[in-house]
Amino acid sequence: MRVADGPWYELRPAGPGLSHIVERHVAPWMRCNMWLIHGRDTNLLIDTGMGLRPIKPEIAALGEKPVTAVCTHCHFDHIGCAHEFDHRLGHAAEAMDYATPDLVRSCASSWIGAELLTALPHEGYELKNFRLTPAPLTGHLDEGDVLDTGDRVFSVLHLPGHSPGSIALYEKATRTLFSGDVIYDGMLIDNAWHSDAPAYEDSLRRLKELAVEQVHAGHENSFGRERLHELIDCYLAGGQRLGDPAAWVAEQAP
Ligand SMILES: [Zn+2]
């Protein structure tokens, strides 16, 4: 496989004060969405990718203002670059997974396959040697906490199920939800080693009651209220669940 030419990360405007960052050479079916909220005083980076290359040198906007990295949960595809940031927030239930991440606890061992990359981050890179850099949380987020960028306010929702410390950020003023892996427009995962399907159902029932118009999720495309309710209803009826990761990865591979 060739080495990536040009940047690893790509930033796209995604609305007022919001940018969407992706890892260009991680397969679209696996890569996480990173959301950069441009606040008046501080910026928030929601999720940080796999960490295959440093992100700060490539994304100029990350150097403009203080950045707080907010991890929606501890999985390998969301926490890879967290260590680059001085301020790292996540839920206390997964504190150990940020401080001492390993391939099993981060779910990397279930999900990483040779087909995951479309180019190498650097010469000689081998995905079988994938490791995460420890990124101990510098602060904990829990239900009801508020993140204030100076001109925008985001409430923290604790929505366990996919993982015990899964959180989402909700901006009431714009009815926008940054949902991490709690909900995205794809098959949901409720069978990782620390998943809890009944808790997942409760979390999704909660989301259905929330006044949401726009969802920016941890994977796949953003969507609106109607699709949110469709996805939730489908899950609650027993569908929309991914099942065996190995079989699913094999299906996605080109
Ligand atoms: Zn996840």
Automatic annotation (TrEMBL):
It comes from the Bacteria. The keyword S-adenosyl-L-methionine does not apply. Coiled coil: none annotated. Keywords: Hydrolase. One of its GO terms (molecular function) is hydrolase activity. The keyword Hydrolase applies. GO terms for biological process: antibiotic catabolic process. Residues 31-219 form the Metallo-beta-lactamase domain. PANTHER family: ACYL-COENZYME A THIOESTERASE MBLAC2, METALLO-BETA-LACTAMASE DOMAIN-CONTAINING. Belongs to the metallo-beta-lactamase superfamily. Class-B beta-lactamase family. This is MBL fold metallo-hydrolase. It comes from Aestuariivirga litoralis. The lineage of its organism: Bacteria, Pseudomonadati, Pseudomonadota, Alphaproteobacteria, Hyphomicrobiales.
